[in-house]
Design brief:
four-stranded antiparallel sheet, alpha+beta, 23% helix, 4 strands, flat
Amino acid sequence: MRLVFEPSTIRLEIHDNGCGFEPAADHLAASGHFGILGMRERMEQIGGSLEIASSPGKGAMVTARLPLEHTAPSS
């Protein structure tokens, strides 16, 4: 797990070396698995994004990005 603070973004990366999976959203939803879709929707609702990279036998990498809002200092 890695948490990165950048000037305009917070990025959370989670990587494992497990069995991996095929991350096709339509396949998962069709079989009743909505976890990834739900996480992606929640990230989008707060202005962020969620990326999943995985393949069978290769583990998985989940990356969540959330842009930071910069507000002008009040006077």
